[in-house]
Design brief:
Mean pLDDT: 93
CATH class of the largest domain: Alpha Beta
Number of helices: 16
Distance between the termini: 57 Å
Number of strands: 10
Number of domains: 2
Strand content: 5-15%
CATH topology of the largest domain: Rossmann fold
Helix content: 40-55%
Shape: globular
Strand order of the largest sheet: 1-2-10-7-8-9
């Protein structure tokens, strides 16, 4: 029987920060003059693409494995190294986070990814030592496959959403933002399943309830946005976005309940708006963002009237953009 899912507290997230800080460096938070002029606000970018996997989710993966292995009797003990295999279903960044943590602590990892997943992320997972299996047309089908595989093989399945330890780990983004910018007014980040938004919102709202938190989804995959707005769980039969980190057609009750309590609002942006933000980040910060990584800036630009005169933190959640996609974006921009 699955244990009840607890909602992380600020103290849980602080403990996660202590735990993972031995393995992951604090990521930069930097003010952007050109983006601030564009928005009419003080805009700061949180560079999660500077993590070892070039994405924010590694925080959750490391926290999860550290807690799991300590419960099992210690990192890399006999059971951990021989009997425990981690399984994750992912479009890429969650899979990389589990693969990275598995390599760090010598634990075998199997990742299932949708057919047609970002080839760069798939290769990165393999380079980290994970076995990668391609299954399903999207991550929803991949997750269903993982549930069956976990039972058949007795793997430890690490779901990207229904896992409080992941929310604790990625919630450390919020702690770092508050440490560096305690008078922050607004926090905005991409939302796929919702772990980054939820974890950071828990941290920031408990540190200062006046801080406003916002999530951004792709208009072609708006299940969480629709659920948040209509205050009920909504799933869609299909999705259409190039941003694989946002490509989910389901809303999970665990994240939904946290959002309803801690998140102020959500936005949707088009793929074209995301691509324009990728170019803006490349031009003005000299950092490469993947689709989900640029979504927060796209949401900020689209709704800039809300943020006039505010101190705003945008999370560049990841930089794992395929080069063929970047070439396409640059080519279309030059036309």
């Amino acid at each position: 029987m699955q244990k009840a899912l607890y909602i992380p507290t600020l103290e849980d997230i602080k403990k996660a920060k202590q735990r993972i800080s031995k393995y992951l460096l604090k990521t930069p938070l930097r003010y952007s003059e050109p983006l601030s002029k564009l928005i009419g606000a003080e805009v700061y970018i949180k560079y999660e693409n500077h993590n070892p996997t070039c994405a924010f989710k590694v925080r959750g993966g490391v926290n999860y494995v550290l807690k799991l292995t300590s419960q099992e009797g210690g990192v890399c003990n006999e059971r951990s190294s021989h009997d425990l295999t981690l399984l994750a279903g992912s479009t890429g960044n969650h899979g990389q986070s589990i693969a990275y943590a598995g390599k760090l602590f010598n634990i075998p990892v199997v990742i299932a990814a949708p057919v047609g997943a970002n080839s760069a992320k798939v290769q990165a997972m393999k380079d980290l030592g994970a076995e990668v299996v391609l299954y399903g047309k999207d991550v929803a089908e991949t997750w269903n496959y993982c549930e069956k595989l976990a039972k058949e093989k007795n793997y430890t399945y690490v779901h990207s959403v229904d896992q409080p330890e992941l929310f604790e780990g990625v919630g450390t983004i919020g702690l770092e933002v508050f440490e560096d910018l305690p008078d922050v007014d607004c926090f905005i980040t991409a939302t796929g399943g919702g772990s980054g938004l939820c974890g950071s919102s828990i941290a920031l709202k408990n540190l200062n309830p006046k801080i406003k938190t916002y999530g951004v989804q792709a208009s072609g995959a708006p299940a969480v946005y629709d659920s948040f707005k209509q205050k009920k769980l909504i799933s869609h039969p299909s999705l259409n976005t190039f941003a694989e980190g946002l490509a989910t057609r389901s809303t999970f009750e665990y994240a939904f309940n946290i959002m309803q309590k801690y998140v102020d609002d959500m936005f949707v942006v088009s793929d074209d708006e995301i691509k324009k933000s990728i170019l803006l980040l490349l031009e003005h910060t000299h950092n490469l963002a993947e689709g989900a990584g640029a979504a927060s800036l796209a949401g900020l630009i689209k709704n800039k009237e809300i943020f006039k005169g505010k101190k705003v933190v945008c999370v560049l959640t990841g930089g794992n953009l395929q080069m063929n996609v970047l070439r396409e974006i640059l080519s279309n921009e030059s036309k």
